[in-house]
From TrEMBL:
Keywords: Signal. The keyword Signal applies. Residues 1-20 form the signal peptide. Residues 9-355 form the Porin domain. Pfam families: Porin_4. It comes from the Bacteria. It comes from Thalassotalea marina. GO terms for cellular component: membrane. Gene3D superfamilies: Porin. This is Porin domain-containing protein. GO terms for molecular function: porin activity.
Length: 358
């Protein structure tokens, strides 16, 4: 019923008469894969070989070929009502969620002038370089954004932000200052994978900023965010050192270099949450016309004894066989070095798919 009502709401919005200029765009990923070999994590009841491809939405593969974990369809609706005011919504239906369509974005945008824009509503939390187009597989070279780096359980927020774009000499500059909160009443990653019980995750008092600059072949992105975390398991508050909340600070830097055929992509992040959780990613690729082979390495490390630690080495090829579609194949080798907080165990997996934009 929820799926039907969501589709009816979108159809009604699109068919209702209005004076706004309506623009529609869409994207899809049709992916399939399987685990070639793996250890699982028997001490946590994960006996079969498992590859956790996408942490926030718990896209997992096992030793049977399946399309569901990462196949998705998305539709973005933009209504320009004139004089700089517009409304943007994005609906995504994921195989990992039984293709139940949900609004990932829903916000109001007001362009003050050619440099400044104010927005308010539900948006993607801009922690990482690829956060804003995380679901649009066509926008990046890999099958998916590297999971060890793009790993946090909260990826949206409701609030407001101010954007600036402009030119500083020969540099293209953009900044984004934002504030808000997110209350995920049954967080999927924590509820279904890590704790196996209903878990409510709250990030409140979120305040953050992003600075991005590019010149010729070089690009750099700096980000910082701070927030207060509360958590409830089966309705009971989780305590950290006797307190029912804790403060977190996120720091990130991404530096990319693109010389036409050869490109290097990097990200380095730290979450200070009563201890440091560090993630990193580096990718090297080479474009042979429409074919792009690449190699990538990503890692997650928690600086506590027995903490979470894992890394993934990936080899893949992207083939842009159509102006609006790309075929991809990727091999992933995961090494899970965690002891007390093992995630999914070691695994070797193969995935193939097609990303489309329209």
């Amino acid at each position: 019923m929820k799926k039907t009502l969501s589709l009816i709401a979108v159809a009604t919005m699109l068919s209702s008469p209005c004076s706004a200029e309506i623009n529609l765009s869409g994207f899809a990923s049709i992916n399939a894969g399987k685990v070639l070999s793996g250890t699982g994590v028997p001490q946590f009841g994960i006996d079969e070989p498992t590859f956790l491809a996408d942490y926030p939405i718990v896209s997992t593969y096992n030793d049977e070929i399946t399309f569901e974990p990462e196949t998705l369809f998305g539709l973005q609706i933009s209504a320009n009502v004139g004089q700089g005011l517009s409304i943007i919504g994005q609906v995504v239906a994921r195989g990992a969620d039984d293709f139940d369509p949900t609004f990932e974005w829903a916000y109001l945008s007001y362009e003050i002038n050619e440099n400044w824009t104010v927005q308010a509503g539900k948006k993607r939390l801009p922690l990482f370089y690829y956060s804003d187009f995380y679901d649009v597989g066509y926008a990046y070279v890999w099958m998916r954004a590297p999971a060890d780096n793009y790993t946090w359980q909260i990826f949206n927020y409701s609030g407001a932000n101010v954007l600036y774009t402009g030119e500083w000499g020969d540099w293209s500059i953009s900044t984004n200052i934002y504030a808000g909160r997110e209350d995920d009443k049954e967080n999927k990653l924590l509820s279904e994978f890590f704790f196996s019980e209903p878990t409510r995750e709250i990030w409140k008092d979120i305040v953050g900023g992003v600075f991005q600059a590019s010149y010729d072949w070089f690009e750099i992105r700096l980000t910082h965010m701070q927030y207060t975390n509360q958590r409830y398991q089966s309705g009971e508050p989780v305590l950290w050192d006797g307190k029912d909340e804790r403060d977190g600070k996120f720091y990130g830097i991404a530096m990319n270099a693109d010389w036409g055929n050869i490109f290097v992509l990097t990200e380095l992040n730290r979450l200070d949450l009563g201890g440091n959780l560090d993630t990193q990613m580096i990718t090297l690729g080479y474009r042979f016309n429409d074919v792009t082979p690449y190699i990538s390495y990503a890692a997650f490390e928690e600086d506590s004894v027995g903490g979470e630690e894992h890394n993934t080495t990936s080899l893949g090829i992207r083939w842009d066989f159509h102006p609006s579609a790309a075929f991809k194949i990727q091999y992933d080798d995961v090494q899970d070095k965690s002891f007390d907080l093992a995630v999914a165990g070691d695994s070797k997996s193969l995935t193939v798919g097609v990303d489309i934009v329209f």
